[in-house]
Write a structure and sequence with these properties.
By secondary structure, this protein is mainly α. The protein is built from four helices and no strands. The longest helix has 22 residues. It starts with a helix and ends with a helix.
């Protein structure tokens, strides 16, 4: 699997919708590609923070990067 294919399969991977063969290829690629591991972790963190922001208008925890918060707010304003 290439990095591009990994990105194409990412949503299905996170939703558990990959076939056993696709999942194996995905996991093998992650075992060989630290850049994709970072990408997947950042993607998961973005989803987590976005869900938290959408669920409440309360202040987010200190562990949320300010740059990410500002990007989400800018995207909301454009939307």
């Amino acid at each position: 699997m290439t990095c591009r294919e990994l990105v194409d399969f990412l949503v299905d991977y996170l939703d558990g919708r990959l076939s056993a063969d696709e999942r194996t290829r995905f996991d093998e690629h992650l075992g060989d590609c630290p850049e994709c591991v970072r990408y997947v972790k950042q993607y998961e963190e973005t989803i987590r923070v976005s869900k938290a922001a959408a669920a409440t208008d309360d202040a987010l925890g200190d562990d949320v990067p300010e740059q990410l918060v500002q990007a989400i707010l800018a995207a909301r304003a454009k939307g």
